[in-house]
Fold:
Amino acid sequence: MMKIYFAGSIRGGREDAALYLEIIEFLKNYGEVLTEHVGNPTLTSIGDDGPSDQFIHNRDVDWLQSADVLVAEVTIVSMGVGYEIGRAIEAGKKVLCLFRQESGRSLSAMISGCPDLEIKKYTTITEAQRWVDDYFKRYF
Structure:
């Protein structure tokens, strides 16, 4: 079974938690989502998903290393998501980034200028799901 690492903002802001949950539920059509907790509406920006920061880092890096692909929702700026994307690229993982252009936010040049990942801009969850479907059909 394919292992999928989903990345979305936790400490950078939880405004999109419901959207993350919808994306995660859709990703389950393609495999096991290792980071389902990112979509949990009770998870706050305190990042209370582990007993310590070191535990969270080590757990998440282990999950990332075992994953076949990283799918990141990158609309809300998150240092952690950027770190995960960089680690995934260094490990040779496939990386799909989803960005809501109408959010009024700017996408980091380190993401938008990176040739080793794919960025898809979307407006609706249906459009995001189409991009995910297209990506998985092309690469897996």
